[in-house]
């Protein structure tokens, strides 16, 4: 009987990388950035009804140095943006971000000077979770999607190379302010 699931043996590549990626994907510890009403749904995910513990993420860390993933839940004000960036910078690499809810992803209904129109202006986001507020089941689905992403994430120098390629592609992309959409 095999200890690891079949995708470990089918992945190919370096066996140490596959084992490390598999272990990292099973223990995702979130740091909470509960900023508004989506935080209630995030807290409900840790309750016995939804049981986030079966995915190894039951320990919501108060210290960013002990966390792997940041759950940004709720609207991000400009005052909170600097604090959120400081928390992100204090997290150890590798780290991931889940943007939870319409307000965190795009500013939601708050299109004014006080709210950042998407937390991706402050931190790089790996998974966007839609809804107002998103259900706890959706957060569990996002954690499972993040788990699959982590299993395929490169390590070491290959990770640095992948980050450089992603940053170069982002710099070549057309800014959203220049996109006209269907109404142009």
TrEMBL record:
Cofactor: [4Fe-4S] cluster
Membrane topology: Peripheral membrane protein
Pfam families: Oxidored_q6
One CC-aspect GO term: respiratory chain complex I
Domain NADH:ubiquinone oxidoreductase-like 20kDa subunit: 37-146
Name of the molecule in the record: NADH-quinone oxidoreductase subunit B
Family annotation (PANTHER family): NADH DEHYDROGENASE, NADH DEHYDROGENASE [UBIQUINONE] IRON-SULFUR PROTEIN 7, MITOCHONDRIAL
NCBIfam families: nuoB_fam (TIGR01957), PRK06411.1 (NF005012)
Primary location group: membrane
Localization per Swiss-Prot or TrEMBL: Cell membrane
Record's keyword terms, sorted: 4Fe-4S, Cell membrane, Iron, Iron-sulfur, Membrane, Metal-binding, NAD, Oxidoreductase, Quinone, Translocase, Transport
GO-annotated biological processes: aerobic respiration; electron transport coupled proton transport
Subunit structure: NDH-1 is composed of 14 different subunits. Subunits NuoB, C, D, E, F, and G constitute the peripheral sector of the complex.
